[in-house]
Amino acid sequence: MSNALVTEKKLSNFINGEWVSAQQDHFAPVVNPANGEKLIDVPLSSQEDVNQAVKAAKKAQKEWALVPAPQRAEVLYRVGYIMKERKEHLSQILTMENGKVIEEARGEVQEGIDMAFYMAGEGRRLFGHTTPAELKDKFAMSQRAPVGVVGIITPWNFPIAIATWKSFPAIVAGNAVIWKPATETPMMAYEMAKIFVEAGLPNGVVNVVFGSGSEVGDAMVEHSDIRVISFTGSNETGRTIAGKCGQLLKKVSLEMGGKNAVIVMDDANLDLAVQGIIWSAYGTSGQRCTACSRVIVHESVKEQLEERLLAEIDHLTIGDGLDEQNKVGPIINEAGLRKIEKYVQIGQEEGARLLAGGNALNEGDLNKGYYFAPTLFTDVKPDMRIAKEEIFGPVLSIIPVKDLDEAIEVNNDVAFGLSSSIFTQDINKVFKAQRDLDTGIVYVNAGTTGAEIHLPFGGTKGTGNGHRDSGQAALDVFTEWKAVYVDFSGKLQRAQIDVE
Ligand code: UN1
Q1: Tell me, what's the ipTM?
Q2: Which of 211, 455, 459, 496 could covalently link to 45 via disulfide, CB atoms 3.0 to 4.6 Å apart?
Q3: What is the pLDDT of residues 196-209, one digit of tens each?
Q4: Catalytic residue among 97, 111, 255, 390
Q5: Rg (CA), the chain
Q6: What are 236-239's contacts with CB under 8 Å, separation 24+?
Q7: 255 among known catalytic residues
Q8: Is 3-256+464-483 a CATH 2.40.240.50 domain?
Q9: In terms of CATH, what superfamily is 260-444?
Q10: 8 A C-beta contact, residue 272 and residue 375
């Protein structure tokens, strides 16, 4: 029934407002991870296609930058309204291509709608600064200027929300965009391109080139007319991109995962902590950068917490995300499933104790898709690989500690720094933790997921390279600061020299 939502057989690139076939006749199948059914074919484009898109974008950007920002924002308002009208349609397609359960798909589409209205508001802000000049009869200000043509590379786990975090600030600031979506989830880009057209975005301001990272991604990184690369994805790919952009002196913004922990103190409301942990560890089958994969628990409440977690895990219904009853959907693909299996094996070899799950699920209809049982390890030591490395699946490790200082130390002693959380009722512990947890996002009495779009999203250490997605901070990625001095004295005034 749901396949009726996907009407095309093959996707085309979206260049200069038109659907254009890729230069080479190579395609990859897009598969519904819930049941293995093929949804559509996605083109595997080449450098030539990127060149064509950049050419169109460069031309369009010159005009677009001259449109007053409040008018640019009008387009984003319209994009937001169309997304709102089409929320259910988009959510269902998102569930089909990505697997996440429909309630979460709706949440993700909502995140994109929120971003549209928030960034549209920037059309009447885009604040710079006015500041005194050091000389008489001289005016000084700084303003945000568009960078030009920007490249965005988006992942399969949040194919619409993350694309909006990156493309909307770029658009409102007067840039043109080349967008390479993940080949696993191209339908969201196809749907968004149609929405851009309907909203009246001029041709060439957003261009979509489908294809692999090694071909399309590389061509984008290396293209001299693409001035910014904004990437969300794996640590390995991010580092490669960073290296190339470094050589080319290209601005690059990277978001690359986490090893996020929930800390549970002895005074925590355990019922609440259990809910927060279950939601952030097993929601989206653990396939979020922000997913909780460690629970750092005060040893005095460890057993109670384990019991309650196990009881809740028992209630998690697993299956096709289009069925409203299901709480946990599939893993994105076979490779994802195998990686999770490998980590479970590593955990067992390292001596962690498996309390729940640990296996792929094959009974009945689940056999057709890629499902993994919600998995819980306990007695995990902070230096075990399952406690250090990103698994990107529903695998949670419980690490007992003696006090808050040790909890913070364990939290911080990993290569990532995206999100963290603490459950406690002690105000002193709250303030100490929010200061000392070395992550870009900290939650108090909530799990590690659920960032809101008007705040900066990103993290420390191996999570990124200091930039942030969404929020005001996203504008820093897609604009250049320009300092403007206006001397109205009518004579030559030399800064630093003619100062009285
Ligand atoms: C991601 O997993 O890369 O904070 C994005 C959250 C969501 C976004 C996750 N709002 O969990």
Answers
A1: 0.98
A2: 211
A3: 999 999 999 999 99
A4: 255
A5: 24
A6: 237/213, 238/464
A7: yes
A8: no
A9: Aldehyde Dehydrogenase; Chain A, domain 2 (3.40.309.10)
A10: no
